[in-house]
Write a structure and sequence with these properties.
With 96 residues, the chain is an alpha+beta fold. It has helices at 24-33, 37-46; strands spanning 11-13, 18-22, 48-51, 56-63, 69-77, 81-87.
Length: 96
């Protein structure tokens, strides 16, 4: 072993057909906002997608429960889906 160990994706998205990786920053955001892995996976698989560019996107969904609001992830989609951050009380705004 070269000291790096084996890295595995957090989960495979059936919707996108790609591995999903959650950054350290996104994990901290999830903890702070009390979003568990199952909720994040549900959001990725079922949420509405708004593209900012060919690779950058928001995925968002209203999920009832302790947070009971619009939850959103900012993500990048290339060979995999990379979750950069997780937000709550998010509001969809039209581009200017």
């Amino acid at each position: 072993m070269d000291g790096w160990g084996v890295f595995m994706a957090d989960f495979l998205s059936q919707r996108f057909g790609k591995n999903v990786w959650i950054t350290h920053h996104a994990r901290k955001s999830m903890q702070k906002r009390e979003i568990d892995d199952a909720t994040l996976e549900r959001l990725i698989e079922e949420g509405e997608v708004k593209r900012r560019s060919d690779v950058a996107m928001w995925v968002f969904k209203h999920i009832a429960g302790p947070t009971d609001n619009l939850i959103c992830v900012a993500a990048v989609e290339k060979a995999a889906v990379i979750v950069k951050t997780v937000m709550i009380n998010w509001e969809l705004e039209d581009e200017v």
